[in-house]
Amino acid sequence: MAGEPKAKVIPLHANSSRGGSARRSATDRSDGARRHPSLLNDPGSRASAEQIAAVVREIDQHRGFAAGAETEESSPNELAQRIAAVAEFIRKRMTGEYSVDEFGFDRHLNEAIFLPLLRTLFNSWFRVEVSGVENLPEEGAALVVANHAGVLPFDGLMTQVAVRDKHPAHRDLRILAADMVFDMPVVGQAARKAGHTMACTDDAHRLLAAGELTAVFPEGYKGLGKHFQDRYKLQRFGRGGFVSAALRTRAPIVPCSIVGSEEIYPMMADVKLVARLLGLPYFPVTPLFPLAGPLGVVPLPSKWYIQFGEPIDTGDYDESASDDPMVTFELTDQVRETIQQTLYQLLANRRNTFFG
User: Which residue numbers delimit the Phospholipid/glycerol acyltransferase domain (predicted)?
Assistant: First the structure.
């Protein structure tokens, strides 16, 4: 039987202005989503097309049986629902009934695989409480700016689930991630399919111009790899490139404050020599890592809070504001101060790190 087809994604060329690291140029992408080619229409798979069609017909029969089992019983048949869902997923992947956009975002795969896995952490492990989702627009562009911490970027993933599940419109949050994520085998491909792209001004501008809800974590590695003694103290917000992108597209800026991420891997030390040897921005030493081996990779079950603040309107600025360093600095400082003060308020209301 022929293998699962790969979505056609336009390769993005290297950008010499970003230190020679492998990246994709936003200007080299084609516009619009591309529908995944079906195995049934692939000339190279004609020899097995009849077999694939037979499998699809069998899946459809099972889906019909599962749906019938659910309607016949007085209570919903959970097993039948799961069988139907799995069959539907396989059928769509085999027939190509899904699309991938120019950034590599595979909404079908994200909803069927990635989000269900992350929801286990969101609901049962971190027990995330979300507030302020009404400050996110029902449609159109907005730039979510959040604090960054926790050694590994679970905060970005949990924010993505929060927006998808708690927002009335169940919007997808497109995250601007570090270059290193996309240099890693498997991880980089998965990140693209989950809707993430590189944290560069061009990609931020393109997403916002397309009306996407976009998130950035401007502290970068400085926030992600800071010591536990500096928890919830915001680091420098870079050069304000995210503000320039928001100003150019007239997208509102939504401050986002996250409490709980600092405690999942309490970083006691950073072994810089090992980090350099491994090509990492830092090598953390936590109470459990590396002494506890693989168990040290399991995040501690801290209680999380995610709060979206009131949006900062950028529509009143003129077109030249995005190139004005004073305007960029003032807006960056305003966003940073809003997040910092909200963090202090959330921490003051939290009674216990693990129980809230």
Answer: 142-261
